[in-house]
Write a structure and sequence with these properties.
It is a single chain. This protein is mostly helical and about 80 residues long. It is about 75% helix and about 0% strand. The protein has one domain. The radius of gyration is 24 Å and the shape is elongated.
Length: about 80
């Protein structure tokens, strides 16, 4: 894969390699991608937790009704 980052990003990569954060450009890009993937994963977890909390509030307030799992299984024939 050949990627053109552009001068500002190439300068960042060069500085970080020179400071010893990675042995070379490829290693630095790999580290950056892993860090970004973790950030995305954390954001997805946070959004799911936020949705769960919102639904719990709706249930508490009575705006959303629930039914027992046993009833769902019975009606589904499970």
């Amino acid at each position: 894969m050949n990627v053109n980052l552009g001068a500002p990003y190439e300068a960042i990569v060069k500085r970080l390699v020179e400071r010893g954060y990675a042995g070379n450009q490829t290693e630095l890009i790999r580290h950056a991608l892993v860090a970004f993937e973790r950030q995305v994963d954390d954001e997805e977890v946070r959004l799911v937790q936020k949705g769960v909390m919102q639904e719990r509030e709706l249930i508490k307030s009575g705006e959303m009704k629930t039914i027992p799992a046993a009833r769902v299984f019975k009606e589904a024939g499970l």
